[in-house]
Here is the input.
Amino acid sequence: MTSDQLTGTGPETTVAVRCFGDGDPLYETYHDTEWGVPVHGESALLERIALEGFQSGLSWITVLRKRPAFREVFADFDPERVAAFGTDDVERLLADSRIIRNRMKIEATIDNARAVVALHDSGRTLDELFWSFAPAPADRRRAATFGEVPASTDESKALSKALKKEGFRFIGPTTAYAAMQACGLVDDHLATCPVVLGRVTTTR
Here is the structure.
């Protein structure tokens, strides 16, 4: 494949292959309509941070399939409601086979909701804190493979440090970068991706 084709500037015969998700409708829809699209709002960002934490050590499609249940049991990730969860709620969640039952990750999600509430009490928001670490847009060659995409960056390391300072848990630099990708702070769609080439069948 030529360099023109890799950057998506070549002829229309360039083969468009999704970065991930081909063959699974749920995964395809997530890739085409969500991944890399800017996400704002306290509940939406808390959800993405939580799900990226739950994904650690597992495949993302596993998390996607469980997302409706996660939203149900975590009160649509409303920070105020989740922050009020107690010991009984933790046990309830650990007994629910529809979600990923990991005590540390469940407790971290509750602590993260409390951290969001603490931000609000100090006159700040998760949205403004999270997005303050978005890197400046840069002209760069799109990666041809995920092997060229970093697992973490200086910005994700700084975001992780800032969130931990505010009381967030389960948000190391790699998880922070995955959240940045998922929430559109960075656009890591590969050069041959149909999103980049304008050939998705769903509407972004």
In short: The longest helix spans residues 103-121. The chain has two domains: 1-35+189-204, 36-188. The chain has eleven helices and no strands.
